[in-house]
Amino acid sequence: MAVPKKRAGKCAQGHRRSHWKASVPEMVKCSNCNEMALTHTVCGNCGFYGGKLVSEKLAEK
What span, in angstroms and rounded, lies between the C-alpha atoms of 28 and 41? Predict the structure, then answer.
């Protein structure tokens, strides 16, 4: 089993993690209310998804 002889430093750790970047979530306009919503999710404003009412609880707001 391979075991490192010496501990890797903080700089090496930083170089490995240099490509870990957060990405901006994709947003689209809701087809019902034209509010911005995350893709492939129910609209938080009106409760519609794919042109159909999915969540009545969100629609009541």
Answer: 10
Tell me how many domains the chain contains.
Answer: 1
Q: Which residue has the tokens 């430093």?
A: 9
The closest alpha carbon to 61, from 50, 51, 42, belongs to 42
Extract long-range pairs of 48-54: CB within 8 Å, 24+ residues apart. none
Q: Is 53 part of a structural domain of the chain? A: yes
| Closest by CA position to 38, among listed 49, 52, 51, 28 | 28
pTM for the whole structure: 0.58
Each residue's pLDDT tens digit, 30-45: 999 999 999 999 998 8
**26 Cβ contact partners less than 8 Å away, ≥ 6 residues apart:** 38, 39
